[in-house]
Amino acid sequence: MAKQILPTYSICSIADTPVTKNDFMTDRFSHYLEAHKDLHFPHKHSFYHLVFFTEGSGSHSIDFINFPVEPGQIYFMTPGQVHEWDFRKNPEGYIINFSENYISTLVMNARYLDQFVFFSGNAAEQVINIPKQERPQLVQLLESILREEAAGADLKDDMIRTVMIQLFIHVNRLAAPAEKIPVANYNSVLLKNFQKLIDLHYREKKLTRDYAAMLFVTPNHLNALSKHVTGKPAGELIRDRVILEAKRLLVNADMSIAEVATDLEFEDNSYFSKFFKKYTGQTPESFRKSILDK
Fold this sequence. Notes:
It is a single chain. The chain is an alpha+beta fold. It has 2 domains: 8-179, Sandwich (Jelly Rolls), CATH 2.60.120.280; 186-292, Homeodomain-like (Arc Repressor Mutant, subunit A, Orthogonal Bundle), CATH 1.10.10. 44% of the residues lie in helices and 19% in strands. Strands 1, 2, 3, 4, 5, 6, 7 and 8 form an 8-stranded mixed sheet that branches. Strand 4 and strand 5 (65-69) form a beta hairpin. It comes from Pseudobacter ginsenosidimutans.
């Protein structure tokens, strides 16, 4: 097949360009699909993205994890994640694309979205099946957002932002009931900071001790905390992030395996290939082929 570059789409224009001044768009999902028949798959977004399905079937994937499409399902994506869908029955629902700045303009906390479980960047937490009795409230909120965008009234964006926050809080309560939400304490804050540091430094820092030093704790403490809360040792969280980025880069057919290895700061192509196969069961070449030949 011909080489292609994994496209990264921006808001509104849905083109292979960086984010523009347009920070928000919303639409009915069927109209969005009709207007953007030329979307390439797989692709990445440079914005936050959510879809609520009211009809349809098929499948979609977030960062190479597959999910069935079902009525009543809502999914969320953060910037940079790789997305793909394959519909068997024409879907209907709602779509919202927005930048982080769009929300932070209203709230003082620049990291406001971090508190919602579905904006964790972990695909397994980003797809939520909404109980039937709760769906009318979501539809009501999404219809309100569509009306505000179409009307263009004074303070339209502030009204949309407040309704979106209501939507996020409502879905977050359904995804993580109050009795299951851990009280914010030193350990939970420490783990959150560890995960943020991984996102910032996974290329050049691949050892638990590196992150423990930045967090002013011992490697044993960080490892025990990670295993207690996530079920995975600290080193595995670091490794999972490296593997995820490797997969994202491998989908870009214009990057050689050696270039991917260099980007992720491995010593050489051979070591990277052994690392990737050890933890995925596939060579980088076979993984790339499995995705791009779909």
